[in-house]
Amino acid sequence: MKINIFNLAFSLLVATLLSGCNLEETNPIETKTKIGIMLSDVGLGDQSFSDAAFHGLVRARDELGIIFDYRELQDTKTYEHGLIELVEADHDLIVGLGFMVQDELEKVAGQYPDQLFLLVDAVSEVENIISTYF
Q: Which of 44, 55, 76, 91 would be a feasible disulfide site paired with 36, CB 3.0-4.6 Å?
């Protein structure tokens, strides 16, 4: 039940953020919102936080037409490296999942002030980071 609530909450959060976007008529592929997510330290298969967020993005893809990509700590070795990869892949929103990513997310947000970030499960005062805390 907790995972379903998290999926719903995450999907609604993404939908809310996307509803404010003003998209001009252009190529539909070019106008799709791209979201990148840096998963929590355990990554996919944790049957908890990362899996719930991933399934929420799958649902947002299927229902809202977003495009998403993700990074896992086991592959990138540091949160900072994974976050920078996602920024350089030109995503509209970069999500840092979990309080443990906060320090490196804030560091990367400072390096990319025009990039929009979302920090889940912690609160940041950095201007280009939206925080959500459960």
A: 91
